[in-house]
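[Automated response] Your request has been received and processed.

Submitted sequence:
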Amino acid sequence: MVEILESIHRIEIPTPFPVGNVNCYLIEGSPLTLIDTGPYLEEGVTLIDKALGKSHYSVTDIERVLLTHGHVDHVGNTRAIQEAVRASGHQEPEVWIHEMDSHRITDYEGYIERRMQAYWNVIISGGVPEEIVAEFSTEGMMKYFGQFGQSVDSVSVFYEEQQFESGIGPIDYLWTPGHSLGSVCFLAHEREIVFCGDHVLGTISSNPSLDFEGRLGISMQRYLLSLDAIEPFSHYIPLPGHRDPIFDLGVRLNDLREDYRNKLRRTKDLLSNEPQSLFELSRNLYGEYARDSLILALAETHDLVRLLDREGEAILTTKDDVIVVKSV
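Generated structure:
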C-alpha cells in the first residue's frame, strides 16, 4: 500500500487477467472508505489486510465500500470483506454501486452465466474458424470466470444524485456508461481528485465494446459521450483502476478520442466489395492477437463497423448467422 496523496492510499491487488493488477484506494477518515475490492482470490482479503496493516488498519475497520463498476476484477472481493468484518463483530460496511451494475454483484452466478453466453454468441456470430471455436465452451468460461467473484447480499444502489461523506470531503459520483452500463467516476471536489475506475486508463484501452447489454445503444459511442462528460473535470487528479496515475486527464481524453477516430478510419480503409466476417476484419485490424484477446477484438470490431454502418459508410448484414461487412 502506497500513500499517493494525503490520506489516500493505493492498494494493488493481482488479477489473473491480461490487464494486470487492479488499483483499490483507501480513503482515511470517517467513514474509512475503500474504493473497489479486487477479484476474489484465495489470498485476496489477506493481501488487503496486510496492506492496511502498514497504516495500522485492518480489513475489519472498513466502514464503506464504493464500487466504480461491476466487473469482477473490481468487485470480486466485496463479499469476502463483508464476511471478514461481520466475523469480527464490527458493523458490516456499506457497499454502494450504480443501479445499472448492481445485478452483477447481487446475482454474480446468474450474471456470469448470461455473460458467458454473450461471449459465446460473439464467437459464433463473428465467424471464428471451427478449430478456434473448439478451444472455447460456455461451461469452461463459466467455470473460469465464476471463481473470481461471489454474490453480495447487502448492497445499496444509487441512480440519481448521491453524495458520500469522507475523510477528504464530500464525494459525488459521475455516471460514465461505456466500459459498463453502471460505470461511474467518484469526484472529490475539495481535493480536485477523480477516482475514474476503468473509464479512463493511462496507457491502455478501456475496452468499452465488451459491454454487450446494449440498453444504451452502441457501447463505443456511449463511451465517447462519457469522455465528454468528464471533460469539465480534466484539471482534477485522476486515479485510475489499473496501472499508474494519469498526469494530464485532458491530454489523455484527447488521445483516446483520436485513437478511436483512427480505428474508425483504419476499419473503413480495410473494407472492400468482398464481404468479411468480424473475425477476418479483426485479424486485418489487429494482426495475430492472442486467444485471450479474441472476444475483445471481435466486440470492438463489431462496434466499429456498426458505427460505420450507422453513418452510411459500411454495409452490415448477416449470412448463416455470421455477421459480415463490406464497403458501400
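Summary generated for your ticket: The CA atoms of residues 178 and 219 lie 5 Å apart. Residues 249-270 form the longest helix (22 residues).
If you did not submit this request, please reply to this message.
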